[in-house]
């Protein structure tokens, strides 16, 4: 006879917990061993009952689902956390996945889908609701952010650019940095080339737009 998968429910809405418990108790091989109305209570019950799977809400008073997931997996690294939430925004989705959530479902999921996700998690298989999977794929399809042109400037060239943006002449820059006028001209030429701009004015505009000058 196969063992039951021990499931802990963590959600601050009592009616949600009651509904989930009632549905999951009818599923073969799944046993709801506890219900928690907060992240803090969820950690306490997880430490006591050692569940195989935790159904985790994201938005709760006190300790939210992200922090609870992170702390729970420190206590029980082998536990599988399935996020069950109404939220699809990036500010919540990506941090909880990075915290170690194994699967991510929406509360609009059918009871059979939740039960299947629990069984899959117990087998070591992640499940992502289709909208979640689509968002993640779109995120990874995006090209990496291009390096800003000024990131290729040396420290000395950055000093020259900041002074140039203040309207300083080559002589002023030379006096401020205690370097030769020819050295200043050399740095200015390099700065224009690296920033791909035509003159000092465009270089100054670039510096202000990128927060490099006061």
Automatic annotation (TrEMBL):
SMART domains: HTH_LUXR, REC. Residues 146-211 form the HTH luxR-type domain. Pfam families: GerE, Response_reg. The keyword Transit peptide does not apply. CDD domains: LuxR_C_like, REC_NarL-like. Residues 6-122 form the Response regulatory domain. Keywords: DNA-binding, Phosphoprotein, Transcription, Transcription regulation. It comes from the Bacteria. SUPFAM superfamilies: C-terminal effector domain of the bipartite response regulators, CheY-like. Gene3D superfamilies: 3.40.50.2300. The modification 4-aspartylphosphate is found at residue 57. This is Response regulator transcription factor.
